[in-house]
Write a structure and sequence with these properties.
With about 250 residues, this protein is of the alpha+beta class. The protein is built from 13 helices and four strands. The protein binds glutathione.
Length: about 250
């Protein structure tokens, strides 16, 4: 029995939903909502002390952190496999996973909060906002920097630079060794970054790759045409659908 605690729109949850769908697995999804703080209750924090989604529960065993969950699923349910067979191949794939966690994953949060999620907090009093930031085990600093007025232009520009760096690196790799990030094999690395590119698309930034990154453009079209991708993106999975009033 697999259970997944997620937000419909969360990029980290989406990469796990893509993986589960690619493996054709049945699971029970507990859909939490970012504005309602179901990920910060005592019961949830006992499972995931980081107070973030996703959390996977497999036969009572809790697994946290989306890339860890991807590798866990691929080890425990190896058919079909989405990791290279050789240790060197796996090392290269993991290096991509770490890069995606270090640069674009945090970067994409800046324009996302600026356009959509900040509205969950602007109506709070300053004291309520302070409390909302303080109760987040890993995200207090991020929320405080955003404040109730949003990020500075410089912070947004830096985040966009990090996304651009990612798209440039992907273009070089895909143009020389595509069609997937690991060459002929579709892997966890593709699943990891696809929701981030989809988010940038949802935020209206598709020109970042469509203007001068043909290999990324072709890769993203191939990604989106996979039935598992569509299954993972059930209605309401994009910010523009979840918060149409801010789209
Ligand atoms: N490293 C974690 C990061 C998870 C994460 O930051 N999740 C976001 C949604 S994409 C979250 O739960 N945010 C909670 C909040 O902002 O309070 C992972 O990959 O699972």
């Amino acid at each position: 029995m697999i259970e997944l605690y997620s937000f419909p729109t969360s990029t980290c949850s989406l990469k796990v939903r893509i993986c589960l769908a690619e493996k054709g697995m049945e699971y029970k999804e507990h859909r939490l909502s970012p504005g309602e703080n179901g990920h910060l209750t005592d019961a949830y924090l006992r499972m995931n002390p980081n107070g973030v989604v996703p959390t996977l529960v497999h036969d009572g065993t809790v697994v946290v952190d989306s890339s860890v969950i991807l590798e866990y699923l691929d080890e425990v349910f190896p058919e079909p496999s989405f990791s290279p067979a050789s240790p060197t191949g796996r090392a290269r794939m993991r290096a991509w996973l770490r890069f995606f966690e270090e640069k674009p994953t945090p970067a994409v949060r800046y324009p996302t909060f600026q356009k959509f999620l900040i509205h969950n907090y602007t109506r709070l009093s300053p004291e309520q906002f302070e409390k909302a930031a303080e109760r987040r085990p890993l995200k207090t600093d991020f929320y405080k920097r955003m404040g109730q007025d949003g990020f500075t232009d410089a912070e947004i520009a830096k985040a966009m630079d990090d996304v651009r760096l990612t798209i440039d690196r992907m273009e070089t790799e895909l143009a020389t060794n595509g069609p997937w990030i690991m060459g002929d094999q579709y892997t966890l690395a593709d699943m990891c970054v696809a929701p981030l590119i989809d988010r940038m698309d949802d935020l209206g930034h598709r020109e970042m790759w469509e203007s001068a990154h043909p290999a990324v453009t072709a890769w993203f079209a191939a990604m989106r045409s996979r039935p598992a991708f569509e299954a993972a993106y059930y209605p309401g999975s994009r910010m523009s659908e979840f918060y149409p009033e801010h789209a």
